[in-house]
């Protein structure tokens, strides 16, 4: 069996190409096994016969700069120019034979979407696996020099000789003009903030109507069940526990769909990469690469895959530090909590308040990185930059639908598992031992809340709010279901004020990430950094909420 490692830049099409080649190999009875790796370090110690480097045709120079790092770990390598159809769409052409000759590595071109070049790629892999390595080409000598700038200049020279495009391409010129505006040092950041404002405005405005329909349907179902079932402990469990808890979280599903529709558009079109480019200068000021911002952006969806995406960062110290920055990002699990309070207390400033929460998370993560870069664990120089951007492309409906469904499925799975069990447990703690939901002060839940209440009172939180935060440890969506159970769906009567609500949202933003995030950090970065995240997030959440509430109370 020929074991092949597939490696490339993030979002370069590695997964799609691996699956397509594996399917074709199985169909033709080629004894091959493809395994995706995220950085060259993973090649060390593994018995791979060949390494297939996926070179994104829209990021040629950036992709080829990875080649010497791969050769450091494995000398049998094949370059595959992926997404070649995107290159042709812009009237570019790449002289593959000359590229192969100059760089000294077997090279082919493919397009998974058009099913182009895949059989030839398999034959090249088979041939390379069976022959000895030839080290007569310049790339091997350049690698030995260990001079990054020399190799960068060499790659630039190769592309100058091999990559050509039509000079009168009006479409490309128009896209280049758009890029100059979107990545402008003065205009890029305000445009990015305007785009985010529009995304959140649409999320609230368009999502308000289906949200009201779901809430109305849940209330109607609860009223119908109340008239149908005689009052008892199990009817209270069904209506006051399960239905209210799940219904409160389910109501935000339309907002989740709308938000991730826009995120998918930004990612597939190439604008997400431009956001990383805009942040490159800021990230460099704290000693990090602009690519560290990509996992942070992914963290807006879910912290778990975002931490795993940091594997693509080559430098080990930057990789770990990026993983530690990801929990500062407001994942989709926090979104229902924000929407509940923003809808209730900030009617006129919904989008601005939402942007402020996301911006605070980003700013604190950058500040955190700047501090950590001055410690002995992460101190180092980093001169790398984002030099190349992918081409703009039209988002595909299939990719957008798949992206949305992935988030929706994850959301519904949490509702049917974590949220359901959290709702049942909260109801039980609220109902017993007095078997009366109106007698909360003598319930088990009150005892737990009053135990932690002295620590949370300086933040403006009563014991009920403290309990809600405890239920958010496994999944942040559980906070909404707990609020619905404890306050009967009306948090305006709970002693919340706009100041308390904002302080509460800040605590939710910063405190203990979900259990899955901590487990992923433990696996990817090590036990010590997982525990470090647990303690520093709790301390920072308390400190920031304390300062906001106490300073705000003075006005």
In brief, what are we looking at here?
The protein is α/β, with parallel strands linked by helices.
Q: Counting H and I runs of at least 4 residues, what is the number of helices?
A: 25
Q: Give the strand tally.
A: 7
Q: Which ranges are low-confidence, i.e. pLDDT below 50, for 5 or more consecutive residues?
A: 383-387
Shape: elongated
- Category from helices, strands and their pairing: alpha/beta
| Computed CA radius of gyration, to the nearest angstrom | 27 Å
Q: Could you report the average pLDDT, rounded to the nearest whole number? A: 84
Describe the structure.
- The chain is α/β, with parallel strands linked by helices and 555 residues long.
- The chain is built from 25 helices and seven strands.
- It has two domains: 164 residues, Rossmann fold (3-Layer(aba) Sandwich); 345 residues, no CATH class.
- α20 packs across α21.
- The protein is elongated, with a radius of gyration of 27 Å.
